[in-house]
C-alpha cells in the first residue's frame, strides 16, 4: 500500500470520526433544545391554566358578592316599605302643625339615618367582595414575578 493511500485513508477515517462526533453533538444539542422547549411550553400551558382558574375564581367571588349586595338591597327596600305606612300614620296622628312638623322631622331624620347606614353596609360588603376577589389574582401575580425572577 502506498503512503499516499494510507494518508488518504487515515484522513478519511479522521473526517468520518469528526463528522460522527459533530453529528452526535448536534443531535444532542437539538434534542436538549427540544426538551427544554417542551418543558417551557408545558410550564407556560400550566401557568396559563392556573391564571384562567384564578380569573374564574375571582369572577365567581364577585358574582356571589353582587348577589349578596342585591339581596341586602331587596331586604332593605322591603323593610322600608313595611315601615312606610307606620311613618305616614305618625304624620296623620298630628293634631297641631307643631306636632306635624316634629313628626315630619323625626321621619326625615330616621329615614336619612337608615339610608346612610344602608349605604355604609353595602359599601363594606363591596369592599370585602373586592378584597376576596383580588386574592387569587394577587397570588397569580406573585407567581409570575417569582417565575420571572427564576428566569433571570
From TrEMBL:
Highest taxon above the source species: Bacteria
InterPro entries for the chain: Phasin, Phasin_subfam-1
Domain Phasin: 43-141
Protein name: Phasin family protein
Organism lineage: Bacteria, Pseudomonadati, Pseudomonadota, Alphaproteobacteria, Parvularculales
